[in-house]
Amino acid sequence: MEIKTLQKRLIRLPEVINRTGYGRTSIYRKMKDGSFPRCVKLGGPLEGSNAFDSRAIAWIEYEVDQWIKSRIEERDSVNRGFAASQNDER
Asked: Sign of the C-alpha dihedral, residues 29, 65, 41, 54?
């Protein structure tokens, strides 16, 4: 039996904004309160005062996709409950 490993692809902020519909500030607020996947720092620690300062960050694509999927599932579960209550009222 073959176990397929998930490929980990990093996506940058413009792609995260495009996929989620959230703005930069909202994404950072949600990260801070734990309701959105945390980013990954792409640059390592500085090794000297003249070293290149890489402050670039990215998100793991799979984690963002899972977050989107969970929002859809949450919506669908609420809609199922709403539809059931509408049928009970009839």
From this structure: negative
